[in-house]
Amino acid sequence: MNICIIGQYPPQVGGIATYTKQLSDKLEEEGHNVYILTYPQNIKRKKNIFEAKTINIPIIRGISFILSSYSLLNQIIEKYDIDIVHANYIIPPGLIASLMHKKDVKIVVTTHGSDINILPSNKIIKPLIKYTLKHSDNIYFVSEKLEEKALALNIPQLKEKSKLTPNTVNIHKFKPIKENEKKLNKQYHNPLVIFIGNLVKQKGLIYLLEAKKIAKTKYDLLIYGEGPEKKLLEKYIQENKLENTYLMGKTTTPEKIIPESDVMVLPSISEGASIVALESMSCGKPLVITNSGNISSIITNNETGIIVPIKNPSKLSEEIDKLIKNKEKRENIGKNARKLIIEKYSQMKIPYLE
After folding, report:
1. 289 near 308, Cβ under 8 Å?
2. What is the Cα 325 distance to its own chain's centre?
3. Which pick of 9, 26, 283, 297 has the fewest CB atoms within 10 Å?
4. In CATH, what class is 179-344?
């Protein structure tokens, strides 16, 4: 088959870019022709990758991407005889795909979290979400919670078009390493607590810094990522004189960073089915995560991870401190987490290939 995937793609960082890469690799392994429609980023590998033009102003960027992608997707469908258009996120990729519903092409949308968790509360965007879901042939949800929220929008035939397809992780790429293989401990001499993700409000990083401020143990906090909250975080670190707290910039090699950690943390206010959470568990690392998202529903507290309330720096700090003090607990949770990933979240399933 000829398949066009719309969404973020490396070198962009984040769960969706990772998912798109995993999906395209899997499809190509199965012998399908894959074409990527993504945001402009000067990708070196140009073959079968198409970058829509955008105006890099926050309010206008999404609209310009939709307009540019609509024209480009039309061309891709016609030139490469596309059978399936697979969009990652409802808005804007799913909307772009759904505008092709009158063509002889199957429209598939995967919803990953924030699109269903946050966007329906926007009165302007909600009708666009309903339009997209109505005019898509299949909707894939990475968790039952997301499916329930979408069904609450009361869109005709949505249940019949829906399918649960949990995120997965490459357990051979994201795996534990031996102590003597670690490199970061040559630079940092305290236990390492690491966050990887976009520096945006919904990631709850301000609460992580507040937790660090009241920590009763000594550890180095490394925050990997870029985003609009960076200046706010820098200001908080400076004003509160937080020691051993570092904004590291973005990383394109999380598989090298995560195994170096002693504790991984995801303090989100709102979260979908976080891929970096699965990657952390696959690396055998204890993950401290809020109960905001869908990953917390697969974790057994104190067995395969640690679950804390959202916006609660006191509890977050307390649980990180407990793990820093107790190496045996860290190792046990990490082993259990990796076992869970291997058993249930290591094989990517693509429904339209089944």
Report:
1. yes
2. 29
3. 297
4. alpha beta
Q: 46-77, pLDDT tens digit by residue?
A: 678 888 877 766 667 778 888 889 999 999 99
Tokens of 294: 């869908």
Cα 142 from Cα 254, distance rounded (Å): 21
Q: How far apart are CA 270 and CA 70, in angstroms?
A: 30
Concatenated DSSP letters of 238-272: HHTT-TTEEEEE--S-HHHHGGG-SEEEE--SS--
Mention every residue, 6+ apart, whose C-beta is less than 8 A from residue 239. Answer: none
Q: With respect to CATH, is domain 2-165 assigned 3.40.50.10230?
A: no
pTM given for the model = 0.85
Report how far residue 170's alpha carbon sits from residue 67's, in angstroms, rounded to the nearest whole number: 35
- At position 258, the amino acid (one-letter code) is I
> How many Å separate Cα 35 from the centre of its chain?
21
Counts of helices then strands in the chain (DSSP H, E): 13, 13
Residue-wise pLDDT for 184-201, tens only, equals: 988 998 999 999 999 999
Q: Where in the chain is the domain with CATH 3.40.50.2000?
A: 2-165, 179-344
**Predicted local distance difference test score (pLDDT) of residue 324:** 98
Strand order of the β-sheet with 49-51 is 49-51, 33-38, 2-6, 84-88, 106-111, 138-141, 162-164
DSSP for 321-339, please give it.
Answer: HHHHH-HHHHHHHHHHHHH
Burial track 9-45 (b if 16+ CB lie within 10 A, e otherwise): beebbbbbbbbbbbbbebbeeeebebbbbbbeeebee
